[in-house]
Design goal:
There is one protein chain. This protein has 502 residues and is of the alpha/beta class. Helices cover 64% and strands 7% of the residues. It contains 22 helices and 7 strands. The strands form 2 sheets. Strands 3, 4, 5, 6 and 7 form a 5-stranded mixed β-sheet that branches. A two-stranded antiparallel ribbon has the order 1-2. A hairpin with a 3-residue loop joins strand 3 and strand 4. Helix 2 packs across helix 16, helix 3 packs antiparallel against helix 16 and helix 5 packs across helix 13. InterPro entries: SLC26A/SulP_dom (IPR011547), SLC26A/SulP_fam (IPR001902), STAS_dom_sf (IPR036513). Its main location: membrane. It comes from Saccharopolyspora mangrovi.
């Protein structure tokens, strides 16, 4: 009787028995994510060559806009280190004024992809290509950010970055800026590395990156170190909405950048969603809705002329580990960012650029995932080849060419592996029995012809293709031509064809 009354009461109130109070957990998690987001938003913007306020704007939009939309419950969006190289290249080629149009266009493309239910197809991209893409981004990120550590401006091209390493090493050990920068960067990296390992709970919920920024910034100020610091302006003044005249300047190169932004941001967001879903037991990501949400966020960022956004695994994992229960935590993190930039923007001016560079170097190192690469080399050599080729091509050329190269090689590799063909021949006194198995496609045509041409011409041949799963037109014609040739040479052939010919 008591149980029936409890069930009736629960139905009336709409609550489950022993339902946890999620509000406190979400508020606490939002503060943790906010503390993680602040230095990363600023660092990604600085590395992208745009005003740091634009990185904060993207973080705010990621919380207040994407955070409210359906798709993923615990995934957090904002400016991502993975897009830094792409943004810097776009700004260099097209100018800061065109950034808003590119991000707006990418957002619209993402919305169209989500509405047309293309979100789930991103899950079909080869993981080795994605790993290679992230590793390539990580290498370019590290290569670029070592220059701010030494107090030097980052060169524009990869060749110039490699060529300038000698001068950078000299500057690091001979100039006051270089010595101070490398001291702060190394200290920040040591703090971030040691924080999670040696600081007990619950103190280790405070992000190590934030502690590193606070301590090194304080040291730089107290010691009056000769290092460059972040330049902070007005949030409203830094907004860079595209003008109507900018739309008239859109050309094929800009359209290519829009498509590249959309595809890379979508892939990174949805792969992040797959990883975050494995971290918690709550509702799983609805990929098409998440793609629409990401597109809406990028469209808003484009209107403001801010950085593009993706779902970010660092912030998302911090959100889950901090105990977030609902999407309220990610929405609140955007509100805290807005409150911070309105009330305390001057604090950002104390942060040395060398320290932000250290944060991004660590982010780049994590993108490399060397343990996963080593495991892939041991277990799947061909997949490891695709990964390394993708990463090296990205470093040597750019993100789009490297990713497309990796995808093309992955498709060819898969086609070759899928079209496996076995040929077994049993020779008897007056006849030969040849049995084929697997997939007979044009990729295996040379091997098939090589076996057929080695068969003796004077014997009866029983060619059994009945167990072949797929026989394409090229192989079918090759078999017919060989049969005709064998019969012209006074041989007899009996052919058992598969049920279906492609």
């Amino acid at each position: 009787m008591t149980t029936q009354l409890e069930d009736k009461s629960q139905q009336q109130t709409g609550r489950k028995p022993n339902a946890p109070n999620t509000l406190g957990a979400d508020i606490a998690a939002s503060l943790v994510v906010f503390l993680v987001a602040v230095p990363l938003c600023v660092g990604v913007a600085a590395a992208s060559g745009v005003p740091v306020e634009l990185g904060i704007v993207t973080g705010i939009v990621g919380g207040l806009v994407v955070g409210l939309l359906p798709g993923s419950s615990l995934q957090v969006s904002g400016p991502a280190a993975g897009l830094t190289v792409l943004v810097a290249s776009a700004v260099s080629q097209h100018g800061l004024g065109m950034l808003g149009i590119i991000v707006l266009g990418a957002g619209i493309v993402q919305i169209l992809l989500g509405v047309s239910r293309m979100g789930t197809w991103f899950r079909a991209i080869s993981p080795s290509v994605v790993q290679g893409m992230l590793a390539g981004i990580g290498l370019v990120l590290i290569l670029g950010q070592v220059y701010p550590v030494g107090g030097l401006a980052q060169p524009d091209t990869t060749a110039e970055k490699f060529g300038g390493l000698g001068g950078l090493a000299t500057a690091m050990v001979t100039t006051p800026q270089g010595l101070a920068g490398i001291g702060l960067a190394v200290t920040a990296l040591l703090i971030m590395t040691a924080w999670k390992k040696f600081v007990p709970a619950p103190l280790n919920l405070v992000p190590g990156a934030l502690i590193a920024v606070i301590l090194t910034s304080a040291a730089a100020a107290l010691l009056a170190l000769p290092v460059k610091k972040i330049e902070v302006g007005s949030l409203l003044a830094s907004l860079n909405p595209p003008a109507l005249t900018d739309f008239g300047a859109v050309n094929l190169a800009v359209l290519g950048s829009i498509l590249t932004f959309a595809l890379i941001a979508s892939a990174e967001s949805l792969f992040s969603a797959a990883a975050v879903d494995r971290m918690h037991d709550g509702p799983k990501t609805q990929y098409n809705k998440e793609l629409v949400a990401q597109g809406a966020g990028n469209a808003v960022c484009g209107v403001f002329g801010a950085l593009p956004m993706t779902a970010v695994i660092v912030r998302s994992s911090a959100n889950v580990q901090a105990g977030a229960k609902t999407k309220l935590s990610r929405v609140l993190h955007g509100f805290w960012l807005l409150l911070f930039v309105v009330l305390l923007p001057g604090l950002l001016a104390f942060i040395p650029t060398a320290v932000l560079a250290a944060l991004l170097i660590q982010a780049g190192w994590k993108l490399l995932e060397l343990k996963a690469v080593a495991k892939l080399v041991r277990e799947h050599r061909s997949e490891a080849f695709v990964l390394v080729l993708t990463a090296v091509t990205i470093v040597a050329t750019d993100l789009l060419i490297g990713t497309l190269t990796g995808l093309a090689v992955a498709v060819v590799k898969t086609a070759i592996e899928v079209s496996r063909l076995s040929v077994n021949a049993e020779h008897e006194e007056d006849r030969v029995h040849v049995e084929l198995g697997g997939n007979a496609t044009f990729l295996r045509l040379p091997r098939l012809l090589d076996h057929l041409e080695k068969l003796p011409t004077g014997k009866h041949v029983h060619l059994d293709l009945s167990t072949v799963r797929h026989l394409d037109r090229a192989c079918h014609q090759a078999v017919e031509n060989w049969v005709a040739e064998h019969r012209r040479n006074n041989g007899s052939v009996e052919v058992a064809m598969p049920a279906k010919v492609g």
